[in-house]
Specification:
It is a single chain. Strands 1-2-3 form a three-stranded antiparallel sheet, with no helix packed on it. The N terminus is likely disordered. It contains eight helices and three strands. A hairpin with a 2-residue loop joins strand 2 and strand 3. The termini are far apart. The chain has one domain: Fido-like domain (Fic-like fold, Orthogonal Bundle). Helix 3 runs antiparallel to helix 5. The longest helix has 23 residues. It has 219 residues and is mostly helical.
Length: 219
């Protein structure tokens, strides 16, 4: 996927596919075009989402190993480092993600902390479910354990938590387009353990999803 303009990285995982003009990361398929890589990643994510939605249990406590397995199942036939914690440092504008050398420790803390507290995600009022999803999502994003695909992997986990809470597959439209700026504000606020903005955004995601399902059921 095209990383230039999105992330700055250093190290072997920053290598690009020869002939891609520095726009596509080195990959197992020899893909050189951005559009083709987008399609490959999108198709893989659909398959992985369907697989995890079909087998995840409502009483399942998610772990760091589960997150690595999701990532590997999604991108394992595209990138040689899929499912492995990154060895390069990443930043996006003024947002610096966790140092690569700290990822193993931080993911263990995520497992002992938010993943233990908020999964399985039980049916509860929207505000409570949204808060649990927001905390897990924000902490995973701030760690940014993988070289590529962190946001989409975090959304997959958020969707699985919503499923545990009795919700339909979450629609993340509110976090894209015009909502993207507010989403990044929420992630930045989470640096200081302030999850209020992000919790509100996920509450909107849940409400939009439920409304969409109700409208669809009337047709």
């Amino acid at each position: 996927m095209n990383e230039r303009g999105r992330y700055e990285a250093k190290g072997v995982e920053a290598e690009f596919e020869p002939g891609s003009h520095g726009r596509v990361l080195r990959n197992l398929r020899g893909i050189r075009r951005v559009r083709e890589m987008h399609e490959a990643e999108f198709e893989g994510l659909l398959r992985t989402t369907e697989a995890w939605f079909s087998r995840a249990r409502t009483d399942q406590r998610f772990t760091a190993a589960n997150i690595r397995a999701m990532h590997h199942e999604w991108l394992g036939d595209i990138y040689p480092w899929a499912g492995e914690y990154r060895t390069v440092d990443l930043s996006k504008g003024d947002l610096h993600f966790a140092n690569a050398g700290q990822i193993h420790r931080l993911m263990a803390e995520l497992e002992r902390g938010p993943l233990t507290i908020y999964t399985p995600c039980r049916p509860a009022p929207v505000a409570d479910v949204a808060h649990g999803i927001a905390v897990v999502h924000a902490e995973l994003i701030l760690i940014h354990p993988f070289r590529e695909g962190n946001g989409r992997c975090a959304r997959l986990l958020a969707g699985l938590m919503g499923l545990q809470a009795g919700l339909p597959a979450l629609r993340f439209d509110r976090l894209d387009g015009k909502g993207k700026a507010r989403y990044f504000e929420g992630i930045q606020a989470a640096f200081d353990r302030d999850y209020g903005l992000l919790s509100g955004l996920f509450a909107s995601v849940i409400e939009q999803t439920v409304k969409h399902q109700r409208r669809a059921s009337r047709r």
